[in-house]
What we know:
By secondary structure, the protein is of the alpha+beta class.
Amino acid sequence: MKPTDTDPPPDDKADAPEGAPEATAEATTDPALIARRQLLAKMCVGLGVASGAALGVPMVGFVVGPLLKKPPSDESRWKPVLQAFYWCEPLGAKGGGDFNWRTEPDAPPPRIINVDTLAIGETVPVKFDDVSVLPWAGVTGLTAAWLRRVSATEFIAYSVNCAHLGCPVQWRPQAQLFLCPCHGGVYYADGTVAAGPPPHPLTRYPVRVRANLVEIAAQPLPIG
């Protein structure tokens, strides 16, 4: 039935459930309520900004950091080298013919390589500090190479990484060859390719003799 002009206006309060709070203009203009809402809004914005900064700053630093880092000086790149592995039988197994590259306690202690340490034609594994080493890097800051004495004062240092896919190569003194165990790459004693998939010879490090010590110029890890 449609209301007529003579019907009284509807009573909204009568339709409301019993006990329901009455909406008043005073509730929406309460200064304390408005202040709390503004404070919560500011806290949400602040937490959002802080979370974004916590995630974004490390990523920005990762991208920008290398661009701002000063390259090492030419002199600081030169590092003395240490031999820790020796081609020998294990202790207590003399005559077994099980020759391999060994370290302590089945081999002599590590030694710093000087100009008279190696015989001419001898090739040994050495390690030295990486060019980008950090104080907390520990053993991860070391780089390996194969060092060969060519003459009384000339040395060659080869990267241990195969030119194919970067696997570490092994030097076999009996055959005078570098062998890659991953894909069968073979190199001659001078680092040139003898067989297999390597596309070019082993990468070389610069080497010098200074103050009777053999030093290698560290550089970023060569791959390929």
